[in-house]
Design brief:
By secondary structure, the protein is mainly β. Helices cover 0% and strands 60% of the residues. It is built from no helices and 11 strands. Strands 2, 4, 5, 6, 9, 10 and 11 form a 7-stranded mixed β-sheet that branches. A 4-stranded antiparallel β-sheet has the order 1-3-8-7, with no helix packed on it.
Length: 121
C-alpha cells in the first residue's frame, strides 16, 4: 500500500506564511507528478500547484507569486511554501501523487487525508 501524510497546517494571520509537507511511504517504485489541492467549505476541490518528477511546476492563478511547490525525490516528499496568505486561502489542503507501486504495472493517483489551513486575525 501507499500512504501520503500531510503536515504543517494551522492558524495563521493574514499576510503570514506556512510550509506544508507531504511524505509518501509504502511499496513505491516511482512517483511521477506530485501536487497540492485545496477545498474550502462548500466548494469543490481545486488544484493549487503541481510539480513533475523533473521539477516542472504549474500553479493556480490565485496563488502565483505567493506559493512555491518543491519536492525531494530521495525522500518522496513534496512541499508547499505559502506566503502572503489571505483569508480566501483558508481550506483543507490535500496532497496527491501519481505513484507506481512495486509489482504493479501502472501508475495510480493517491491522496492524503488533508491538513487544515486557517487564515484569520
Amino acid at each position: 500500500q501507499v500512504q501520503l501524510v500531510e503536515s504543517g497546517g494551522g492558524l495563521v494571520q493574514p499576510g503570514g506564511s506556512l510550509r506544508l509537507s507531504c511524505a509518501a511511504s509504502g511499496s513505491i517504485a516511482s512517483i511521477n507528478a506530485m501536487g497540492w489541492y485545496r477545498q474550502a467549505p462548500g466548494k469543490q476541490r481545486d488544484m493549487v500547484a503541481v510539480i513533475t518528477s523533473d521539477g516542472r511546476t504549474n500553479y493556480a492563478d490565485s496563488v502565483k507569486g505567493r506559493f512555491t511547490i518543491s519536492r525531494d525525490n530521495a525522500k518522496n516528499t513534496v512541499y508547499l511554501q505559502t506566503n502572503s496568505l489571505k483569508s480566501e486561502d483558508t481550506a483543507v489542503y490535500y496532497c496527491a501523487a501519481e505513484v507506481l507501486r512495486v509489482g504493479v504495472g501502472s501508475f495510480r493517483n493517491y491522496w492524503g487525508k488533508g491538513t487544515l489551513v486557517t487564515v484569520s486575525s
